[in-house]
Design brief:
This protein is about 55% helix and about 15% strand. It has about 450 residues and is α+β, with helices and mostly antiparallel strands. The longest helix is centred in the first third of the chain and has 42 residues.
């Protein structure tokens, strides 16, 4: 009688006040429902697929977004390492006051370099073969300070340093006999190295009574560089500014002055001051205008990849809904018994909420760990997979870069994690609400 009275008292107290939210017995029930039994095997399979879907969805999102960020950062670094952030041209077409313009620009805040530049197309040839080249004439001191040709700092993890000048030197670039610096891929294509001679042919040479004769001149290779972007390493040739002026008939003129600032993203703040100081006889453009189409395409592709891959997480969340609905239907008798013993609707709802949310939370955390580990070791994984299947997984001729880039944006990673957690928890609300709404009398009527 005492035990019956105690039970009655528990029911009355539970029905009025309800158990403490997220009590130990709620966690115990949620844990039991997550563990498979023979007759609930199909429900467990659905839960397993939901877990795998969320894990793979989160990991894939982190990996793909990191690779896209890495591509953008690497391409931006290579492009801006070779080209200036602000490009100044003369409106009159005769840029003879370039020294004055460069001196004025160097005095402006945030400006690191002002590089007078002569640029032209030419054919570079050896007795064996010829290739097209983009010749850039710059001063020796500017070449040595150019980011694309400066050695990278030592990697903190490996202790290795990426050297840009892999053969020869740029010391005395202006004072040596007529010389050029070529890219590593051009060097391999033409089979020429430091000390060898090449012939440059420009279609716009001296004017004669019979028309314009091509200009042909022989140069010695004094340096071989490797920027790390195959397009540049296979086509760009550096030449001393004075020699380029002679070769392209510029005399005392240049084609442009390229200005490098301390932060490429702040270029919009620098241009107004440059215009005011240099004057209206010159036109100004920046790297965003010159590469707008390229980086816009990258941004659109990145956004679309995020949307498409988010569907993986959404499908996994829908699997949680279907699995929980089937679990609620299978456990209708248990729910009715718990209700008659004093469990409140809130308690039942929390049990099934914790059951579904556990799948989403554990799957999200597992996907986060998998994604971060993959990104941190992506180059090693690429090389291993390429070796395993015998295929170059990241051809530099196709993708421009010599190694697969990956850069994690932790703000973006957290957004992916929170999105997966939110979808997982939202997916549990409806099945948990259905379980809490169940009438115990109806559930037990046919038992």
């Amino acid at each position: 009688m005492a035990s019956i009275a105690g039970s009655s008292e528990m029911v009355d107290k539970g029905s009025i006040d309800g158990p403490r939210p997220f009590a130990a017995f709620e966690w115990m029930l949620a844990g039991r429902y997550l563990r498979a039994r023979r007759k609930e095997g199909f429900i467990s399979v659905i839960a397993g697929f939901s877990f795998l879907g969320i894990m793979l969805g989160v990991a894939t999102l982190i990996i793909v977004m990191s690779v896209m960020n890495g591509f953008r950062a690497q391409l931006l670094d290579k492009i801006l390492g070779l080209n200036g952030h602000v490009i100044v041209h003369s409106i009159t077409g005769s840029f003879s006051d370039y020294k004055n313009v460069a001196d004025i620009a160097r005095k402006q805040a945030r400006v690191e370099q002002a590089i007078p530049l002569v640029e032209g197309q030419a054919m570079i040839s050896t007795p064996a073969r010829s290739v097209a080249a983009l010749v850039r004439g710059i001063r020796g001191i500017d070449a040595q300070n150019l980011k694309a040709l400066r050695d990278d700092p030592k990697d903190l993890k490996t202790g290795e340093q990426n050297k840009k000048i892999i053969q020869g030197t740029l010391d005395g670039f202006d004072t040596n006999k007529p010389a050029v610096a070529i890219g590593s891929r051009m060097s391999k294509t033409l089979n020429i190295y430091v000390g060898d001679y090449v012939t440059l042919v420009s279609p716009r040479g001296a004017s004669t009574p019979f028309g314009t004769a091509p200009r042909i001149k022989r140069y010695q290779v004094t340096a071989v560089f490797e920027i790390g972007m195959s397009e540049y390493d296979s086509s760009v040739v550096f030449m001393p500014l004075a020699e380029a002026q002679k070769f392209f008939n510029r005399r005392n003129r240049v084609d442009a002055v390229e200005i490098v600032i301390d932060n490429a993203d702040k270029v919009g703040e620098v241009i107004p001051d440059l215009k005011k100081s240099i004057g209206n006889a010159h036109s100004f453009s920046d790297w965003r205008e010159r590469n707008k189409g390229f980086f816009t395409a990258l941004e659109v592709e990145r956004s679309m990849m995020f949307i498409i891959l988010s569907l993986i997480v959404l499908v996994a969340a829908l699997n949680i809904i279907s699995g929980l609905i089937m679990l609620v239907k299978d456990k209708s008798r248990d729910i009715a018994v718990l209700r008659t013993m004093g469990a409140t609707r809130g308690s039942i709802m929390r049990v099934f909420f914790m059951t579904g949310a556990s799948i989403g939370i554990v799957g999200t955390l597992a996907g986060f760990v998998l994604g971060v580990l993959f990104v941190e070791n992506i180059e090693t994984i690429r090389q291993f997979v390429g070796w395993l299947i015998g295929v170059d997984m990241f051809s530099s001729e196709l993708y421009y870069l010599t190694e697969m880039p990956a850069k994690m944006d932790w703000k973006e990673v957290l957004q992916v994690v929170f999105m997966a957690l939110a979808l997982s928890m939202l997916a549990t609300i409806y099945p948990a609400w259905r379980a809490a709404k169940m009438d115990p009398v109806e559930a037990l009527r046919y038992e």
